[in-house]
Amino acid sequence: MHVSFEQWLTEVANYVFLALAIPTLVGAWMVVTSTNIVRAVLYLVVTLAGSAALFIMLGAEFVGWTVVLVYIGAVIILFLIGIMITRAPLGSHEELSHPATVKIPAALLSIVLFTVVAWAVADAFGGLIIPPDVGATRTGQLAEVIFQRFVIPFEVVSLVLLSALVGGIALARKDDPEEPA
To answer: Is this model's pTM higher than 0.70 or not?
Structure first.
C-alpha cells in the first residue's frame, strides 16, 4: 500500500517523527563539525538520544533502551573520562585539520554515498506501510534469545569489552619514573 503526501500529513506519528528526527540530524551534523571535542561528545549524546527515541517510537524498546544504557550511559562516559585522563586539547588546532583538497572530495563522496543509499531504500520500500497485524518483536522475546541461545557469545563480548577497558586504562596511566617498579 502506497501513501500519498496528503495522507502522510494526516498522521500524528509523522509529526512526532519529525520532532525527533530533526534534532537528531542537527546533533549529528554538529558532532562532525564541532571543533571542541567535549561539545562534540555532548552533541553525540543528543544524536544518540534521538535515535533511541526513534527506536522506541518504532516499537523496538529493547534496542532503544540499549542505546540509552550502553551508548549514552557507558560509551559517552568513557569518552569523557578518556578526554580527561589524556588531557586532550580542547581547542581547534590547524595541524590537525585537513586542507580543502581533502575536505571537498570527502564531502562529495559522502553526498554520493548518501544518495545511493537513499535511492536503494526508496527503491526497495517506496511508500509501503507495514500492516498493523504484523507484531513487533518485544523485549521479552529478545531477552530469551540472547540469554538462552546466545549466552556464551554474549559473555565473550563482555570479556572483550572488559579487556579493552583494562587496556585503555593501562595505556592512559602515567608511571612515575622516580618510583621503582
So the answer is: no
